[in-house]
Design goal:
about 30% helix; globular; alpha/beta; about 10% strand
């Protein structure tokens, strides 16, 4: 059944996301900033315990979600992508299964982004504290 608006126009149905991710990862784990796939590989070797990989500031805007997915590989659910002021990019990242996003969009855009309850706890407006790289 198709919904209609009082104006008689059809309302667009909200499509189901390609990946409905739910993550049990916690932001209490160490957070390391990485910027390339070799950083991720190196960090896995140097820090055997669970951690969160975070992109550099606004890297999502510069390089996009596919780049970040390639950088973190199978660690997407334990990662944080900084999407700058783009609520649309943040939503795409969450749909792709990225654990958290940092989004500094306008209050109205953040309200729209928070409207999806399954993602509400995974939207950060500020970056978490960064852990120094292990020596």
């Amino acid at each position: 059944m198709t919904d209609t608006h009082p104006t008689g126009l059809f309302l667009q149905e909200r499509p189901e996301p390609l990946i409905r991710s739910s993550t049990s990862q916690s932001l209490t784990k160490p957070v390391f900033v990485i910027s390339c796939q070799s950083d991720m590989t190196n960090l896995k070797e140097r820090h055997p315990r669970p951690f969160l990989a975070m992109s550099p500031m606004a890297a999502g805007n510069s390089f996009g979600v596919p780049w970040w997915l390639q950088v973190v590989g199978d660690g997407r659910s334990a990662s944080i992508l900084d999407c700058g002021a783009s609520a649309a990019l943040a939503r795409i990242a969450l749909l792709a299964g990225i654990g958290w996003v940092i989004c500094k969009a306008s209050p109205r855009q953040l309200t729209a982004l928070y409207s999806d309850a399954s993602y509400r706890r995974r939207i950060l407006t500020n970056a978490p504290q960064v852990t120094p790289w292990p020596r």
